[in-house]
Design goal:
The protein is of the alpha/beta class and about 425 residues long. It is built from 17 helices and 10 strands. It is about 45% helix and about 15% strand. Strand 9, helix 15 (about 345-365) and strand 10 form a beta-alpha-beta unit. The radius of gyration is 23 Å and the shape is globular. It starts with a strand and ends with a helix. Bound molecules: 5-phosphoarabinonic acid.
């Protein structure tokens, strides 16, 4: 098992019979997905995506990566939402160590941000990857315009063909037209994979390969997830158990899920999770509000509310069994700070004790909580976790009887913004 689920601290909140009473509903959700007969069934390309990624394609991306790394100092990745979060989450989870430093653009409309970014890269050799499934999203389109203009002042049109890569729809959208007219290299986002489920399509794989991330391991972990979480049996399928438990907690008035972890490297994984879960289930007046905290940092800011605030929260911890590196706490002869009692222990040991204490305290304070534990904090286990959450939210969406694969609500602000901007 690459991921385990501990539910000890649901005791008293969820009865074993509550879970078994959901068996038939979970099976119906499973069949709806796997027979492609449920809501949103034209967006199920993610379901068997990991196993359809070929070795040849990954080799092609790694070869492109070598070429780009040889002529670039930095990569600018332009995109927002599903065309941004999975990339950043992967790079940051793996410790931010990439062969090609990555800067992000198109995920906000701050002029100061864009100005500072252009200043930062002005003396660097730049490659840009612009990612937009629709090819028409305002934030990345505007950022791409600005960045392209800056690059045009430095590079010939011929050189830009090497330095601009587009990831977009096969036929539709302005970005496809731009790529074709200008002769930029391009990759296709499959029609049947929604933005928030697209981290293992070229949306994620191309920039991650360019950055030097081990995309083969990421995909292998997801393939393992695809196999493990294709089992219909609620007892054997951890993703389904997690989905069913969330559903039961929601029905008992726990309307907010806090994804808590004890690693700052998880910050963007949680951001990715929030988009995946929030956009998938928050519709028709339903849906758990996904929030996230990074401990122990946030225990010193949000700890009070978690322990003692309104009891409409449940918590899901994400822990990592073995850190990639551990750091020993040194012994000091004088022991002025009084911490010799942990001398010789690893920092991870203290972190795990902080987790154990927090999970117990929050439970006693009325916050039911469960813990997902990954064996390791590497690309393989992250790929596995991505698939775990994708499968879990698909099942949970069906339990809630919503379409987990659309996002009609996202259009409302855009319509008003376009009217204010005078778009014709
Ligand atoms: O999940 C989604 O579909 C959205 O969050 C999109 O990923 C986001 O709006 C970006 O869209 P696009 O890739 O079309 O620019």
């Amino acid at each position: 098992m690459s991921i385990t689920l501990n539910t000890d601290y649901l005791k008293g909140f969820i009865q074993p019979t509550d879970l078994s009473s959901l068996t038939a509903q979970v099976q119906a959700a499973h069949l709806g997905l796997h027979h492609k007969s449920g809501k949103g069934n034209d967006f199920l390309g993610w379901l068997d995506l990991p196993s359809r990624i070929t070795e040849g394609f990954l080799n092609e991306l790694n070869a492109l990566a070598k070429e780009v790394q040889s002529h670039s100092d930095v990569l600018i990745s332009i995109g927002i939402g599903g065309s941004y979060l999975g990339i950043r989450s992967t790079i940051e989870f793996l410790g931010g160590v990439s062969k090609l430093p990555v800067y992000y653009a198109g995920h906000n409309i701050s002029s100061d941000y864009l100005h500072n970014l252009l200043e930062t890269v002005k003396d660097k050799r730049v490659t840009v990857i612009v990612i937009s499934k629709s090819g028409t999203t305002t934030e990345p389109a505007v950022a791409f315009r600005v960045i392209k203009k800056a690059l045009e002042a430095r590079y010939s049109a011929q050189e830009l063909k090497k330095r601009i890569i587009c990831v977009t729809d096969e036929k539709k959208g302005a970005l496809r037209t731009i790529a074709e007219k200008s002769g930029y290299r391009s990759f296709v986002i499959p029609d049947d994979v929604g933005g928030r489920f697209s981290v293992l399509t070229p949306v994620g794989l191309v920039p991650l390969a360019l950055a030097g991330i081990d995309i083969k391991s990421l995909v292998e972990g997801a393939v393992k997830g695809q196999n493990e979480y294709s089992v219909m049996d609620l007892e054997k399928n951890t993703a389904y158990r997690y989905a069913a438990l969330r559903y039961l907690l929601y029905k008992k008035g726990k309307k907010i899920e806090v994804l808590s972890s004890f690693y700052p490297e998880m910050f963007f994984v949680a951001e990715w999770f929030k988009q995946l879960f929030g956009e998938s289930e928050g519709k028709n007046g339903k849906g758990i509000f996904p929030a996230s905290l990074i401990f122990s940092t946030d225990l010193h800011s949000m700890g009070q509310l978690m322990q003692d605030g309104e009891r409409n929260i449940f918590e899901t911890f994400v822990m990592i069994d073995k850190p990639r590196f551990d750091v020993e706490i040194p012994f000091e002869a004088e022991d002025i700070d009084g911490f010799n009692y942990v001398a010789g222990k690893g920092i991870d040991y203290v972190n795990k004790k902080a987790y154990e204490a927090t999970a117990a305290a929050h439970f006693e304070g009325g916050v039911p909580n469960m813990t997902l534990t990954l064996c390791k904090g590497d690309a393989f286990h992250l790929g596995h976790l991505y698939y775990f959450f994708e499968k879990a939210i698909a099942i949970h969406g069906y339990l809630l009887d919503v379409n987990p694969f659309d996002q009609p609500g996202v259009e409302a602000y855009k319509k008003k913004m376009f009217a204010l901007l005078g778009k014709k």
